[in-house]
Structures are given as C-alpha cells and as structure tokens.
Amino acid sequence: MRLNVWGISRDGTGRGFAQAFKFEISQDYLTNDKSTFNLHGELNVEVGEFLIAKETDSSRICYFGVVDSFENDVVKATDLYSLLSFEFVTVPISGKSFEEHLYKLIKRYLFDDPTKLVTCVDVDYSETKTSHVYQGGKSEPVSRTLLWYATNGFKKYHVVWVFDGLKLIDGKYRIKTKIKRVDGVRNIKNNIYTFLNWNVYFTPVRSKSANHLVIYSKGERSMENAKPLSVWYLTQDNELVQDANDKVWRPTRTKVAFYDLPPKKGEEDRRPTYQEIAADMLRGNHYSHEITFDLTRDNEFLNWDDFVMGLKYNIIYDGSMFKSVLTGWRYSSDGRFVQLRFGNVRSRLSELLE
Q1: pLDDT digits (tens, 9 = 90+) for 18-53
Q2: Topology of the domain comprising 210-281
Q3: Is the peptide bond preceding residue 251 cis, with omega within 30 degrees of 0?
Q4: Per-position DSSP letters for 30-93, written without gaps between them
C-alpha cells in the first residue's frame, strides 16, 4: 500500500505533492501520537503546517494532521487539535453547548490571534449540543493548555474536533472541521477469529479515583455538623446515582464540591445543577481501562466507518463486559493489521488527563 500526500500552509496555500511507500499512522485522542511518512516527491512543508494523506486506490482521506518535524524526507505529524498546545485562562463555567463553548475558545485564542497564523480553518459546531460544566480553580483563575481542556471535554462528553474535508476557493484551500459529540454504540467480543493479540489493562473505579461526591454550600460554616446539599456516587458501570447500594465500590473515595450561593435579587441564576457538578467531578473517571487488539484490514466485522474517535463500544472479553470508548488506532505500510485502542487509562507513562 502507498499513500498520496499533500501539504497545505496555515493560510491555505498548497505545498506540493509526494507519495509515501512507507508510513505508520498512529492516532490517539488522549496522547496525541505522532504519525510518520517517508516521502518521495516535491512536498515542501514546514513545522506547524498541514498534511493530508489518501490511499492511492481509494477516495478516502486516511489522515489529516499538523507537521511536527520534516527531515531527510521523513515527516512526522500530530492530530489537528495539537494546534491547541498553548496555555489560556480557565474559570468555572457551565452551559448548554460544549461544542459552541469550545469553538469560542478556539476562535478567541487561535484564529483571532494574528501571531498564531491560522487563517484557513473553518469550524462547524452546529451538529450537536452537549451540556457542560467546569469547576476550574474555584477561588481563582487557573492556567491550562487549550489542548488539555479540549481533551478533557472528549473524556467527559465524547466531543471531538475533527477534520471534515477540503474546499478550494480562489486558488487556496479552506480546511473544513467539525466540533461534535460522537453518538452511537458498537458491540464486539473477543471470540472473533480476526480479532487478535488482545491486551486488557483495567483500573477499577475503587482503586485510584473518587467515586463519591458530597456537595456543600459555599456558605457552610460547620465542620462537625456540615449539611450536604446533594450526594452522588459513581457506580461500577460508570453511572451517576444517589443510592450507595446501587453497585457502588466500597470503601468509597470521597470528593467535595462547593455550590455557589444564590444570586442576588434580579440577577440571572447561572449555577449548574447538582448532577452537572457530579458529572464534571466524577465522570472524568469513566472508562478506567486500556484495551487494545489487532484486526485484519479486510475483516467482515468492522470497517472504517466504525473507526470514529469517541464512539462507544460494549466489549465482552472472556465473559466480562467493558463499557468503553474508542480513543485511538495504529496501522502501517508494513502489515495488514489495524490496532484499535479503547479506554481512558494509559498503562504507559503518557496519560494526559487528570
């Protein structure tokens, strides 16, 4: 297999064409892995510009990324959202559309900053709307990278920022992208002969992460007799409940949140619900495992339409079911297998999310 590869500058100018007879495409929404292409041709891209790859015998664009390095005809690239690898200020916020919220942040801190030099990317965020809440630093602003913030939204809400096509206008390319929530569920088992080399690394909710949230008023004044406003638990199935007897690991690990005082008369009440706070504080512990396996590229059970970052999977492995999410894949010119990766834990020392 070989790939046709094109380059595009950050203002939409074409940067030439090449072919890759040797390549490895490695994409992971949690760790932002690098993909590698050994090129033959007249491609002239610089670090920070865009790279597009398409299989020579297919119309499907199999890769879109941002050039990380280019030396001796070998280019390495990372995913689109690596453009967000810079710090910005975060404060507590809630809203009805994380998609629109993330777009506004990208526009403000990337597109509207003339020093970032990104002028050819369009974003559609209208396909889905997902309620969100972010607790931030509670009492003062906290700096985060926008990459961390976007990836945290993926982990909690399955919202992704992805490439969606190209359009040529007056000799320059417009890069079409989408911010959307990924819906849908697939079911697979480890008893299918084309699914090989399974590895399952599982960190139970009980072992490291909080699974019990107690919410108090910011006006609370007692330690010995503090009165909770609301209490929530995260079950073994990663569901939010208020009944401690509903499949909750014990002993629990408790976390505390403080709820804002009511607004003054005449002011809008913008406080999130208790459940939205619980989702923000606890559901970051969802999918606490890493599952990988290989499958043949020409298998009859999964096709490229099933390889969508953020798509949920029910995986039955040796009789145990894992409710998981597809977070990455890897394949190369050297083999006929694709490795799929599921879950929000990384068993190596590269986990990005908190």
Answers
A1: 999 999 999 998 888 999 999 999 899 999 999 999
A2: Phage tail proteins - 2 layer sandwich fold (3.30.1920)
A3: yes
A4: TT-PPEEEEEEE-----TTSEEEEEETT-S-EEEEEEEEEEETTEEEEE-GGGGG-SEEEE--E
Are the beta carbons of 19 and 42 closer than 8 angstroms? no
Task: Tell me which residue of 97, 60, 64 sits closest to 83, measured CA to CA.
Answer: 64
The answer to whether the beta carbons of residues 260 and 270 sit under 8 Å apart is no
Beta bridge partners of 181: 159
DSSP reduced 3-state for 125: coil
CA atoms within 13 A on the CB side of 220: 18
Phi then psi dihedrals of residue 6, to 5 deg: -125, 155
Q: How far apart are CA 116 and CA 40, in angstroms?
A: 30
Euclidean distance between the first and the last CA atom of the chain, given in angstroms as a whole number = 38
**Spatial separation of the C-alpha atoms in residues 143 and 91, rounded to whole Å:** 9
C-alpha to C-alpha distances, 85 to 177, 265, 353, nearest whole angstrom: 18, 41, 14
Q: What does the pLDDT average to over 66-73?
A: 93
One-character DSSP codes across 100-115: HHHHHHHIIIIIT-TT
The domain spans of the chain are: 3-78, 83-181, 185-203+288-342, 210-281
* Residue 293 and residue 196 in contact, taking contact as beta carbons nearer than 8 Å: yes
| Strand 121-124 versus strand 93-95 pairing type | unpaired
**What is the pTM assigned to this prediction?**
0.83
CA distance 126 to 220: 40
pLDDT in tens, 121-137: 999 999 999 999 887 76
Q: CA-CA-CA-CA torsion for 312, 100, 153, 181, nearest 10 degrees?
A: 0
Q: Read off the tokens for 330.
A: 């890897």
The CATH fold assigned to 83-181 is Phage tail protein beta-alpha-beta fold (3.55.50)
Examine the pLDDT at 253 and tell me if it is beyond 50: yes
pLDDT tier at 139, thresholds 50, 70, 90: low
